[in-house]
Design brief:
It is a single chain. The protein has two domains: 227 residues, 4-Layer Sandwich (Metallo-beta-lactamase, Chain A), CATH 3.60.15.10; 76 residues, no CATH class. Helix 9 crosses helix 11. The strands form three sheets. The protein has a seven-stranded mixed β-sheet with strand order 3-4-5-6-7-8-9. The protein has a five-stranded mixed β-sheet with strand order 10-11-12-13-14, with no helix packed on it. The chain is α/β, with parallel strands linked by helices. It is built from eleven helices and 14 strands. The longest helix has 24 residues. Helix content is 43%, strand content 19%. The chain binds zinc ion.
C-alpha cells in the first residue's frame, strides 16, 4: 500500500479547498435572453432592485419553456404547437405578462395553471382574461387549489375550469404534477416537465435563490412539512427551477436552504440544553414562563446563526433570520423534535 506523505496531504487539502470555493462561485450570471437557452447553473444577471424596476425579463430555459420575471414574481411559459400555457399569474403583473409572452411568440394564450391559492401568485388571471376578452382560455388547478380558493374566499383569480391530478397535458407536452408539497400551503403544487432534454421544475415559495428566505420561510403554514419539502426537492431529478421570486434556482440553491434549516434546528437543540425552564417560573401566568424560556432559546440560536450566515448580508439577515428561528422553534416544540 502506498504511503501518504505530508506533501500529498497538503495537495489533497488544496484540492478540497478549491472544490469548496468552486461550489460557492459556480453560478454563471448573464443577461436574460429570449433566444439562447440558459446552460446549467446559469442565472440572470442583475440585482434584485434592478429586476424589480424592469417591465419584465424573459429567459429561455429549453426548446419550448421560458422563465418570465415581472416585478418580484416569476412564472413559467410553455409555447405549444398552436397556443401558450402559463403557470401562475401574479397580482398586478397581468398586462406585463401578456407583453412578455408577445416577445416570445405570436401564438395565443390558451391555458393558465395555478400553483397554489395565494392571490399574490394567481390573482391577475382575471385581468389577463379581461384583457384578452377571450373565453377560450382554460384555468387549470388541482382540486386542493380550487377548494382552497373557495374555502378561503379568494375571489380575485378567475375560477378554475379544469381539474388536474397527477399529469397535466397541453398540446402534447406533459407535466408531472406533485401534490405532496405541504409546507408553504397544503395545496401547493409543483410541476415537472422534460423538454428538449431538460428537466424543468416550477416550484413556488419554497426557495429564494441568491437570498435568505422570506420572513418565516415565506409565512410557512407548517415549518416541519416545509423542511421535508426541501429534502424532497433534492431527491427529485431536475435541472433548473422556476421559483416564485428572485432568480433561477438550482440544486445548489436548495442545498443552501437545507443546510440553513439543519443549522437552525441544531442551534435550537443547543439552546434547549443550555436554558433552564425553572428560571422563568416567576409570574402567575404560564404565558410568561414560555415567553421567557422561548426568548432565551430563540435569541441563543439566532446569535449562533448570525456567526455563520450574517456576514455580507447583514440587512436581510437582520430582517428575516429571527423569524426563521422562531417558526422552527414552535414547530419543533409542538412535535417534540
Ligand atoms: Zn404563496
Amino acid at each position: 500500500m502506498k504511503m501518504i506523505n505530508s506533501s500529498n496531504i497538503l495537495l489533497m487539502a488544496a484540492v478540497l479547498l478549491l472544490s469548496t470555493n468552486a461550489l460557492a462561485t459556480e453560478f454563471i450570471y448573464k443577461p436574460a435572453s429570449t433566444t439562447e437557452i440558459a446552460v446549467n447553473l446559469q442565472k440572470v444577471e442583475g440585482g434584485h432592485l434592478e429586476r424589480f424596476k424592469k417591465p419584465f425579463e424573459v429567459q429561455r430555459l429549453s426548446k419550448n419553456i421560458y422563465w418570465v420575471s415581472v416585478a418580484n414574481y416569476n412564472l413559467t411559459v410553455l409555447v405549444g404547437e398552436t397556443g401558450v400555457l402559463l403557470i401562475d399569474a401574479p397580482i398586478h403583473t397581468g398586462k406585463r405578462v401578456l407583453k412578455a409572452i408577445k416577445v416570445i411568440t405570436d401564438k395565443p394564450l390558451r391555458a393558465i395553471v395555478y400553483s397554489h391559492a395565494h392571490a399574490d401568485h394567481v390573482g391577475d388571471s382575471s385581468v389577463i382574461l379581461k384583457e384578452l376578452g377571450d373565453k377560450n382560455i382554460d384555468i387549470y388547478a388541482t382540486d386542493e387549489v380550487r377548494d382552497a380558493l373557495i374555502s378561503h374566499n379568494v375571489t380575485l383569480p378567475a375560477p378554475v375550469t379544469k381539474i388536474i391530478s397527477d399529469k397535466l397535458v397541453f398540446e402534447g407536452h406533459t407535466f408531472d404534477v406533485y401534490k405532496n408539497f405541504d409546507g408553504h400551503t397544503s395545496d401547493n403544487t409543483v410541476f415537472l416537465i422534460e423538454d428538449g432534454g431538460r428537466k424543468i421544475l416550477h416550484a413556488i415559495d419554497l426557495i429564494h435563490p441568491d437570498q435568505l428566505e422570506f420572513r418565516s420561510f415565506s409565512n410557512v403554514e407548517d415549518a416541519i412539512a416545509y423542511k421535508n419539502d426541501i429534502d424532497y426537492l433534492l431527491l427529485m431529478d431536475w435541472d433548473v427551477m422556476v421559483t416564485g421570486h428572485s432568480n433561477l434556482g438550482y440544486k445548489e440553491d436548495v442545498k443552501f436552504v437545507q443546510e440553513y434549516i439543519r443549522d437552525i434546528q441544531g442551534y435550537i437543540h443547543q439552546g434547549h440544553s443550555k436554558a433552564d425552564f425553572s428560571v422563568h417560573l416567576k409570574s402567575d401566568t404560564p404565558f410568561a414562563w414560555y415567553a421567557g424560556y422561548s426568548d432565551e432559546v430563540i435569541d441563543f440560536a439566532t446569535n449562533l446563526l448570525a456567526e455563520k450566515y450574517r456576514e455580507g448580508r447583514e440587512e436581510e439577515f437582520d430582517i428575516v433570520a429571527k423569524s426563521h428561528v422562531e417558526v422552527l422553534f414552535w414547530a419543533m416544540l409542538a412535535r417534540a423534535l
